[in-house]
Amino acid sequence: MGTGGVSPRKSYRVGSIDIVIAGAESLVGVADGVTRLPSPGGVPLARLFVDTSAERDWPLEVSEHDDAHVFGRDRHRLEVYPETMDVRLTLTRQLGADAVCWLRRDLFGLLACLSGELMLHGSSVIRDGEAHVFCGHSGAGKSALCRMLSAQGLEAVSDEINWLFRDKEGVLRMVNQLFWIPDPTASATLARSGDPCPPVSKVCLLRQSPACALKAPLHPATTFSELLACHLGIDERHGFIRKRAEALAKLVETVDIPVFEFNLNPSEVMRTLFG
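Structure (tokenized):
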């Protein structure tokens, strides 16, 4: 992929990979969650090349072209080259709040995909510096539970994609992304959580119920479809889904994933989850 004459200038750590951004000045207010940690290097490298356009001049589409995947949104277009971990992003010059949220979501999902690591389909919060992830099919109550816990003072992180990885010491961690918060700043969010990749305290499967309870884990084979997240359809062709499934298999072998039966009573939810 050509770089369009723009030279990458800075490298940043996101989760367990580095990203080099060319044209980062176009991402002011958009990439706060990406461009927040200087990188020491020594990990897989993705490259993001950013251009701008006065107006949208691309079709709204999801398609494949040779070795690239193309995702055309209303206010941005992504050209993804998974084999080389290159991403070309074109933005319209006027981005509203909704467009910024979609762009952050797509950037985060792509970086998680390119890492080849675990993506869980669920909502997540941070409490006392530890991450708690709640997974389930659509309609299981992931977003409702996230909003409820946020109202109780916990830091809401995600209600869709959760990127997990193990650090060099084998600690399971979650990337504390900013893309799901309507109007965040990196400094404010890091000041709240204190850790851009907090350790994971628990992963649960959700079931709605009249009463709250933590139940025994289900058989791993029955949980894969509820736990595993894919993003933008680039997984199957380049083996990412296989890598993520292998990571999920290791997770369910080493971590208990209880079923959390919950209702809409905040005090009962908090007491069941945290005592």
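Residues 1-8, 179-192 have pLDDT under 50 and may be disordered. The longest helix spans residues 97-115.
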